[in-house]
Amino acid sequence: MLVLLAFIIVFHITSAALLFIATIDNAWWVGEEFFSDIWRVCHNNTNCTEIDDSFYGYATIQAVQATMILSTILCCIALFIFVLQLFRLKQGERFVLTSIIQLLSCLCVMIAASIYTNQREEIHTNNFRYEGTSDGNYGYSFILAWVAFAFTLISGIMYLILRKRK
Q1: Nearest CA-CA partner of 61 in 34, 97, 23, 91
Q2: In angstroms, rounded to a whole number, what is the distance separating the alpha carbons of residues 62 and 70?
Q3: Cα(130)–Cα(42) distance, integer angstroms
Q4: Which end of the chain is more exposed for a tag (fewer CB within 10 A), N or C?
Q5: 3 Cβ partners below 8 Å, 6+ apart?
Q6: What is the pTM of this model?
């Protein structure tokens, strides 16, 4: 049972780390001479511009920012609640609260990545500060966001199934 709990905790910490990296790192959309994320756009690795309200689709980017931050916070809260429930639940009870919060984190990261996937072309082609960024590829931070979605979904389901045993 200790091995299972250790695996679940490591899996959850990995999910949180993936969410932190995907939210903070600057590689959601990359090209040969630029990279951008949900916070800024950089050309030639030196000329970086913060995304502000002068950007076309700023509300869309803010929605992605908010849901990624919320998913990261919820994932950390779920880990904290799991540790508390580990010592407070009676034998045979399920970690339902932890599961619900982790599944909410999963939903938030899915919403963020889906919004970015759907609106990426409009954002990168209609902004004057995004000039030259329409030809690019999804970066590793974007891919990590989708991997974090899968990890949080799996861990949320594991918590729902898991019962506290001796």
Answers
A1: 23
A2: 12
A3: 9
A4: C
A5: none
A6: 0.88
What is the spatial distance between Cα 66 and Cα 53, in angstroms, rounded to a whole number? 15
Six-digit token string for 109: 């990261």
Average pLDDT, stretch 120-148? 78
Query: For residue 42, what is the enclosing H or E element?
Result: strand 40-43
DSSP bridge partners of 50: 40
Residue 131: the pLDDT is 62
Two tokens at 93? 């009870």
Whether residue 85 contacts residue 125, with contact meaning beta carbons closer than 8 Å, is answered with no
- Percent of the residues in the chain that have a pLDDT greater than 90, as a whole number: 43
Ordered alpha helix ranges (H), the chain: 2-24, 58-88, 96-126, 140-161
